[in-house]
Write a structure and sequence with these properties.
The complex is a heterodimer of chains A (140) and B (741). Chain A is built from 4 helices and 6 strands; from the N terminus they run E-H-E-E-H-E-E-H-H-E. Chain A has 140 residues and is α+β, with helices and mostly antiparallel strands. A two-stranded antiparallel sheet of chain A has the order 1-6. In chain A, strands 2-3 form a two-stranded antiparallel sheet. By secondary structure, chain B is α+β, with helices and mostly antiparallel strands. Chain B has 3 domains: 235 residues, Aldehyde Ferredoxin Oxidoreductase Protein, subunit A, domain 2 (Orthogonal Bundle); 234 residues, Aldehyde ferredoxin oxidoreductase, N-terminal domain (Aldehyde Ferredoxin Oxidoreductase,  A, domain 1, 4-Layer Sandwich), CATH 3.60.9; 222 residues, Aldehyde Ferredoxin Oxidoreductase Protein, subunit A, domain 3, CATH 1.10.599.10. Chain B is built from 29 helices and 17 strands. In chain B, the strands form 4 sheets. A 7-stranded mixed sheet of chain B has the order 1-9-8-13-10-11-12, with helices on both faces. A 6-stranded mixed sheet of chain B has the order 3-2-7-4-5-6. In chain B, a hairpin with a 4-residue loop joins strand 11 and strand 12. Classes of the chains: A alpha+beta (140), B alpha+beta (741). Chains A and B meet through helix 3 of A and helix 8 of B. The complex binds iron/sulfur cluster (SF4) (4 copies). One iron/sulfur cluster (SF4) binds next to helix 3 of chain A.
């Protein structure tokens, strides 16, 4: 399955970049001019380093979704079907990585599609899309 | 108590998509149907949680009318159970009984119902005059009917009249039409009927989740304990499942009206169909709660793994699990039906909420049961639950510890349309009568009703469904059986009355209240009869020990029935309130009220309706409806102190065996509680001392609770209380009360 991976050896958590990855994701993928709505969020720690909130396509949210709106596509990526979603936000509450996102202006939540758009704009080459094995379904 | 750890490797490998299908009967059913009335209506979505109209259908005259929801209805009655009681009050006279055509069944979901972001927001409230109690019964039920009814355009559905032939009422909230169809032949039992109707009315596979069916079964027509099944389509199992409006015999009223089924087809559900004023608050509150479940459920309850059956072993450990008709509180074989078994037997890797967004997901299912008896012998079925009440009522209370039989009993109760709680308690009574010679093989028509005889138990149920012999007598319920046995001269009347676990005509639900004064009141001092949903105090009293003093218990019997009433006004489920609690709850003041969750409810109501309330207003909202219901009971000739009397089995040990099995505890109480000396006294003498002490204490509790509720010592709401609640705006209400002051 395709998974977005970040290398913190390379990412400088926005100290020398303008969070290009977030901005690009928000604008190109979700069509909003607001990096807070990106499917990945890079946070800098004050004492150096940082952390990224990003989806590893673990599939936990598929298990809890009551309307079968979440499914893996051919690439193994967890995709949301907006027509089926009932806006219950269980996917958000049950994602241990806090990677299921919600824009207050939309009723349907959104998440990373492993599309790689952000990868291309990172000036430090910190992001990549990798092919990893799909994890087993968990009972949640 | 050690916390049970979930081990996924132990879950039984059962294919949860496999079961017997009945769709080959679809054509025959369709052929027997004939439209007798069809009227168009304008579908509409709610605004701030209300659609502002209700639907009235007279199944006898076929009158179909819309009624506006007035501001007064919203202000005073809120919705749900409040709307149900309001409509029922206007429909009946003091002389009306359950089988008069003017009796109604009212179904109303409440303003918050249909929200998808918080757990437990899909409930319908069903209100009718009960065949068991002759007063209003209210039942809080999941499934999709209520929310889909509201999303079609109606805050409530009133059903009145009696049809001459069986009818199906179909509401199409997409196309905007209401249709009454006569049906000749075809199935009656829910698991077949609802499957067929769901497929019949859905427009294609994708539409199946947008259809919900209300139905009952064969036993509802031949007993007074009929229940209603509210369906929801389980997408993963690809089958129709149910939640039950169980108590008080509403299914019997349904069949008496010759209603075979109600069907609604609603629009596709989305997260904003209620059009709340403040969706952001709802979203944030919902997500916070889902996280709480994710983090705390595994350590606190395992509701997501076991459903409500998670408390079987807790109740057993605290001597509170009903065993052998509430004689004892624990049993060595309980491990066969406790949650360590159910979490292996229930399908785990699926979504078991009875409405969208329920992260608590208690609606478990046991798949792949092959039936051993009855008309569906050999069929493979999915059994809903078993919930705690069913494991306790059909299981330990009757001495049935074989889980497959327990599931089969549960299945047949459901599909025959009878209440599992009622059936469990009345069967336990029958078995004890059998044990004590009040009944024998001759009197039961050959049924050997010994403890744990599941085959005889099932046969009694099948006879109930066929309306035969002793099955019919049992289907009258405990109160009428008591009267009948006494009239036949079949035993000591006092013993029969002491062990028959009913109050107001309704059977007790499945908790042992002997040692919990709070629960004794929680059962007997109820509006509708002894059902724990009004005051489930046993856990906070006996397990968490949060209400130790007499005053605490009396106060709890003021606050909690009101607090819990509020769920029913709005379409909330009660379980997400206090089954899982915030990690820091015990450090909060008044931890037993779960203050953070109370605030959630206040916020969700305000954010939906735009009516700003606080936690005191919440109690006021409930108090209006609660007191209205009390006055309604009085209007129907009940609702006074004498009707709140409790059978002695619920208060203390009735028999020598009961006393002697817990002699140490009871002797000790003679010393510490009564200040007397048990030494040298016979068991009979000590039992008499207990009886006096326990009944006096219960009577004192009644005095305190009535006073705290603003009622006279006869249990009548005072004029001052009615004024305080604004109920003096209803002259009829005041008139009822005046006759008793
Ligand atoms: S959103 Fe969260 S739960 Fe869903 S696949 Fe991504 S990381 Fe897993
Ligand atoms: S919000 Fe939508 S995608 Fe997420 S769990 Fe609910 S229905 Fe599924
Ligand atoms: S992979 Fe695509 S969706 Fe995911 S964070 Fe990057 S740009 Fe956004
Ligand atoms: S807790 Fe159980 S009964 Fe309540 S809404 Fe959720 S699934 Fe339904």
């Amino acid at each position: 399955m395709k998974q977005l991976v970040i290398d913190f050896q390379k990412c400088d958590a926005g100290r020398n970049c303008n969070h290009e990855c977030e901005m690009e994701c928000a604008v190109k993928v979700f069509k909003v001019d607001d990096p807070a709505q990106a499917a990945l969020q890079i946070k800098a720690y004050e004492d150096g380093g940082g952390k990224a909130v990003l989806c590893d396509q673990c599939g936990d949210c598929i298990v809890v979704c009551p309307s079968e709106a979440l499914k893996r596509n051919k690439l193994g990526v967890v995709m949301i079907d907006k027509q089926l979603c009932v806006g219950c936000y269980m996917c958000i509450g049950f994602c241990e990585k806090d990677a299921f996102m919600r824009n207050p202006d939309w009723i349907v939540p959104h998440k990373c599609t492993s599309c790689g758009v952000c990868v291309k704009v990172c000036p430090h080459g910190a992001l990549s899309i990798q092919d990893v094995p799909e994890p087993a379904v968990r009972i949640i | 108590m050690s916390q049970l750890v979930f081990d996924p490797s132990k879950v039984m490998d059962i294919d949860y998509t496999k079961r017997t299908e009945y769709l080959d009967q679809l054509e025959a059913l369709r052929a027997g149907m004939r439209t007798v009335k069809e009227v168009p209506f304008q579908p509409s979505l709610p605004d701030k949680g209300y659609t502002n109209r209700t639907l009235y259908v007279n199944v006898g005259s076929l009158e179909v009318t819309e009624k506006p929801v007035t501001q007064q209805m919203k202000d005073v009655f809120i919705g749900g159970r409040g709307f149900g009681l309001y409509h029922l009050w206007n429909a009946v006279k003091p002389t009306t009984r359950w089988n008069d055509p003017e009796n109604e069944i009212v179904i109303s979901p409440g303003p918050v119902a249909g929200m998808t972001q918080y757990a437990g927001t899909g409930k319908s409230l069903v209100v009718s005059l009960s065949p068991q109690t002759d007063i209003p019964i209210d039942s809080n039920v999941g499934g999709f009917y209520g929310p889909l009814l509201k999303f079609s355009g109606f805050d409530a559905l009133e059903l009145q009249g009696k049809a001459e032939k069986d009818i199906i009422l179909f509401i199409d909230g997409v196309k905007g039409l209401i249709r009454v169809e006569e049906v000749a032949g075809g199935p009656e039992d829910s698991h077949v009927l609802a499957e067929l109707l769901t497929h019949l009315y859905a427009e294609g596979e994708k539409d199946l989740p947008n259809v919900s069916v209300v139905s009952t079964g064969a036993a509802a027509a031949h007993s007074l304990i009929g229940m209603l099944n509210f369906s929801f389509y389980d997408r993963r199992r690809k089958c129709v499942r149910f939640k039950q409006a169980g108590r008080g015999g509403i299914g019997t009223v349904f069949r008496d009206k010759r209603i075979r089924a109600l069907v609604v087809r609603g629009p596709k559900v989305a997260g904003d169909l209620n059009h709340p004023v403040d969706p952001e608050t709802i979203a944030k509150t919902g997500i916070k709660y889902h996280k709480e479940i994710r983090e705390n459920d595994g350590g606190q309850c395992m509701m997501r793994r076991n459903g409500t059956a998670h408390i079987v072993e807790i109740m057993d450990a605290y001597d509170l699990l009903p065993v052998h008709n509430f004689q004892y509180g624990s049993h060595p074989e309980v491990h066969k039906i406790d949650s360590s078994y159910w979490q292996q037997r229930c399908t785990q890797h699926t979504v078991d909420g009875c409405w969208y967004g329920c992260s608590m997901a208690c609606a478990k299912g046991a798949d792949g049961l092959v039936l051993k008896t009855g008309p569906y012998k050999g069929d493979m079925v999915t059994v809903d639950g078993p919930e705690y009440e069913n494991a306790a009522g059909l299981g330990s209370n009757c001495g049935v510890f074989d889980p497959d039989y327990l599931l089969e009993l549960n299945f047949y109760c459901d599909t025959y349309g009878i209440c599992t709680i009622t059936y469990g308690t009345l069967t336990a009574f029958v078995m004890e009568c059998y044990q004590r010679g009040i009944l024998n093989k001759e009197r039961t028509g050959g049924l050997e009703m010994t403890w744990g005889n599941a085959e005889a138990d099932l046969e009694m149920m099948h006879r109930m469904a066929r309306g035969e012999g002793f099955g019919k007598i049992a289907g009258l319920g405990v109160k009428k059986m008591k009267e009948y046995f006494i009239q036949q001269g079949w035993g000591d009347p006092q013993l029969i009355n002491d062990i028959g676990m009913e109050n107001k005509g309704l059977e007790y639900s499945q908790y042992m209240s002997k040692e919990s004064l709070a629960q004794q009141g929680g059962y007997a001092l109820t509006n509708k009869g002894p059902q724990h949903d009004e005051a489930w105090l046993i856990f906070m009293d006996m397990v968490n020990k949060q209400i130790p003093t007499f005053e605490d218990k009396a106060e709890a019997l003021y606050y909690f029935p009101l607090f819990r009433t509020w769920f029913g006004l709005n379409g909330f489920c009660k379980l997400p309130w206090n089954d899982v609690v915030p990690a820091n709850n015990s450090e909060q003041p008044e931890a037993h009220k779960v203050p953070e969750h109370v605030q959630n409810y206040v916020d969700l109501f305000s954010a939906t309706t735009g009516v700003k309330i606080d936690k005191e207003d919440l109690i006021m909202q409930s108090a209006r409806v609660y007191n209205f219901q009390r006055v309604f009971n009085i209007r129907m000739g009940k609702g006074l102190r004498l009707h709140d009397a409790a059978p002695y089995r619920s208060l203390g040990p009735v028999t020598k065996e009961e006393y002697e099995s817990r002699a140490e505890r009871y002797d000790q109480q003679i010393i510490t509680e009564m200040g007397l000396d048990p030494a040298g006294k016979s068991t009979e003498e000590k039992m008499a001392m207990h009886r006096k002490w326990r009944t006096d204490r219960f009577s004192k509790l009644m005095d305190s609770v009535y006073t705290r509720r603003g009622w006279t010592l006869d249990g009548v709401p005072t004029l001052a209380r009615l004024q305080e609640l604004g109920l003096d705006a209803f002259p009829e209400v005041v008139d009822v009360v005046k006759q008793h002051l």
